[in-house]
């Protein structure tokens, strides 16, 4: 087997590198695109960078919309009488509040957490980082984007319709989003598998690409499950079927299946998706953070291979862990134990990642740029949120907490999923902004923004955990309830004030962002951060088709920092030829490969 | 200088498994005459056909998950006491034979293609497409047969599942018919995707749809 594969490799390397300088994979059919009107460019350009940016704009719009909603909700919790735009404008009912929560959640989870790190940054960077000219299927990519945009419109419109039609529209929009996510995932995985440049072997893939790739495979599996659940749900609501409820009129109340089982069926299908969805949101962030920490520590990723394996394991566990969320809904009594173990075992890949981050930072002369600060902020939030997650892996607490609108849960998942992921995204934005727009974001404003936000989110979500614990005090007899409630309302006001300040601080970011975009003058240098991956070998912003002329050839692994032989800098770009490397250090791909056939034959 | 040469020996093996990027030459033995001599790769070769083959495998994986979710719900829901078994309409058996036959003609067509008999290939491919359309029409006839017996979508869970399964499969098969027509009518001259590759990818999908139908049928028949 290995001999056979070895044979293929020989044939792929034995030809002259000069011959391979012509692009030998297609360019997606758009490198020759003539200049068009801006509307056509905006609507139909299939270039992966254009599409990635569109996703980021979509996410930016949604994140601010979603943030305004959370503000409205927080204010409503403290001053229920206040007249608020989205609540009282329609009618100030509990249903409106629930609808607002739903809209906030779906905007943030679907349009921001799922779309931005994966579809946004991934679309922009994955093809460049692997040395491809575009995604494998550019038209599919474009369709997926417009599907996502349409589902955003649908989700938002559902809020303004009557509850019945609104929910139907919402489910349809989510189904559309699933289809778009599936198309995206397919594109990402095929691109990573088949379009890598010459010499871009799997160990040389940047961790970001690994994360996007693993995430794409995971998405490919779970979004089809959510799609199936949506099909059933829509059939129940529109066609009058009874997949998730019993037919009432045939035999009277069913006996063999208790009434709770059928909603539980829906819950299982849904949570199968939803728990994995958490990983879909967080996996690309792991990749981004690892990448940033390594670049700004000027050190290779520590235990590189273990990190890749940990990412794979996180994807796998994320896929298996769905039962965790059904503790509250009555599974087989033994399965909570199994799922509890699984949930706790997620700690393993998570600790490997943490270990690698600290190992990379160890003894490093870290450059505390804004991007690095956000990456470190992510690590801190992930650690804090992960610790509170340990409590939830205990099924008794999770079961009590699952019953109702709980502040502990709210605090936990906002901290881990929402805020941590947002930090990773902000870090990525500060890091890649010069590449995307040819201008740098202002570092000083960025740092002010970071510190206010960092303090702010801790002031919001730590008290929120306490609130959750206070609301469980009635479980322990003898506690003075009234004192606890008084403390609770003070904490609640504090949380709301902290929310206001934190959201106001995002204004700094917005100013920084817009001002940097509009700033005239010199474009930044190709590689302001002195990073190694392929996108930094291109002009900023990269031209359509990325690699004009010769296809890139990769000679090095993704994180070659530190003292490097025959290299004056403290880093080596992946495309830096290693011809001059002394034979004692087999870093060069071609040398290594030519020694392969005897090596491979030896192992058979 | 730690980390500068962490990748050496193992990399060589993984390089192999990973395929060393999209530039590996096509293996050449599975699709006759794809793009010339596979061992002497020259200048701008057309798109590596591998991306289409990879895509169809991954898409099938995803579709399997979709139908697994449908099937698992069926198995759980079946335990409900409001479950009334529905006898499958006779027409589905006829349809099954039609679909199996279409898979057969598809393989025959690809054999003709491999031997270079493009005329025979087209004829058999047309027969396959026609059989696919006949199957879809047959499924609608089966629905009407059920409706005539008084089983509508919402009559009881079993009939709901029958309609949902056949509809979901039908939609996916419709995509397959689209792919068959694409292979027939697309002008492949100077395109990155060649006809043999398109035919191969389509045939994978078509056989998969065939197998999926047998699975769903078995589920509906044995699980009623």
The count of helical stretches of chain A stands at 20
Which shape of chain B, going by the Cα principal axes? elongated
CATH architecture of one domain in chain A: Up-down Bundle
Q: Which class best fits the helix and strand makeup of chain B?
A: mainly alpha
Query: Helix coverage percent of residues of chain B?
Result: 55-70%
Q: Mean of residue pLDDT of chain B? A: 81
Unreliable stretches of chain A, pLDDT < 50, 5 or more residues?
1-33, 248-260, 325-335, 399-405, 580-604
Which structural class fits the helix and strand makeup of chain A? mainly alpha
Poorly predicted ranges of chain B (pLDDT <50, ≥5 residues)? 1-46
Order of helices and strands of chain A: HHHHHHHHHHHHHHHHHHHH
| Beta-strand share of residues of chain A | under 5%
Largest sheet of chain A: none
Which superfamily, in CATH terms, is the homologous superfamily of one domain in chain A? Cytochrome c oxidase-like, subunit I domain
The N- to C-terminal Cα distance of chain B equals 67 Å
Main sheet specs of chain B: none
- The assigned CATH architecture of chain B is Up-down Bundle
What global shape of chain A is seen? globular
Oligomer: heterodimer
